[in-house]
Write a structure and sequence with these properties.
alpha+beta, 18 strands, nine-stranded antiparallel sheet, 460 residues
Length: 460
Amino acid sequence: MQPPRSGVISAIEHVRLLSVRVPRIVPAVVAVLVAGAFACRAQEQCRACHPREVAAFEASPMGNSIGKPKSETTGRFYHQASKSNVIIRRRGSEMEQHVERQGVSASYRVAYSVGAGLTGHTYVVRIGKYLFKSPVSFYTQTHTWDVTPGYGAEKYLDFTHQISSGCLFCHTGSLQLVAGTTNQFEDPPFTAISCERCHGPSGEHLLKPVPGSIVNPAKLPAHERDSVCEQCHLEGVARILNPGRDWWDYKPGDPLEKTFVTYMETAGSTTLRAVSHSEQLAQSRCARASGGRLWCGTCHSPHGSRIDRAAQVRQACLSCHQSLFGGAKHAPADECVTCHMPHLRPADVAHSAVTDHRIVRTPTPSRIRPLRSATSVWPTSNGQRSSPIRTSWCAPMSCSRVCHPARAIHPFWPTWGLFCCSTGSTAWRCNSSLKLPMPNPPMRATRIVSARRRSAPVIY
């Protein structure tokens, strides 16, 4: 390969990138090496008693969240900012992504495809034992190649984003990450999502296969039940691990904040993100009035592939709205979701549309009630002053405590511009007079808030 110019990654540059190491060994990730192999065997044993559920799960988006790239997906993409051409082609049975810029070129074999394809596929290349995210993704809803989320601000289009444990947490069942590294993996690097992702460790149940010997999310208290889904479907603005914890420490049946804390955008935002299902549902009047009975599993089954809107979801709606169905002023309809849970464009993923889970009565922006807010304050060298950013302490997703005590765990993460979300009951709690002892905010938090300020409006 020719010497690198304009950001094209050479083998020498990759050696520098591959040498990045984290400062400590993470015991929890090392433990996943053993747990992963056991989870795969356990799923096969699950099939013996639950063949229909296992087969349906394996056909579902969750069961196909990672794998080899599809053979039919080829094409090309031109990156205007860097004047780069990316050609996606087949080399026998494998996918290859070829980058050309200013007379310099490089080719990378695609090792894995991330995503079930409902929105798109992101690709992973393997260089030695190290994994990197491809800068181009295929968006299935528009059959378009474009920049991968996270690469949008890059001046040059190169394979420089490392794939870490956090990146793969929601798309794999376990990892074989080399201890002390961020993106070096054994072969195979991971296993697919298995039954244990929602039901927890299966060892006791395999020895004693009776109800109660394994987690059934539907029978958990509301907060712990919702945490099972929110481990991946509550992304927020930032997710911060508790000291000494790893993503893989979470086990179904635990409250999510035992492992990590999720920070949300400030109140009043109507920004729709691709992974914002949980906070949207918690904003809905239906969820708040249900007393915790309305949850993801009311309409969704992890053992199935697609939702039957005309039957399954309508039945959930009619459990409360029987008197309204058939008496509506609009034209007759056999299901509720098309109008009351429309597909909208997320702000953070191009060429896609996702379901709005706020269950709005009239699906127009003017009728969508934003989260309430209060002004936070923190001390400075000149005394206390109010934050210029509106900060929500009225969290419809708070459980038995107001969200802010989590700051005691993360004293250097400011809550101005963000609020910590601990999902649970749908009770509405508000504390508008908090006085927070704030240190100087770290640069990362400043960037998060600044990015929120600069974010483009969502088209509804």
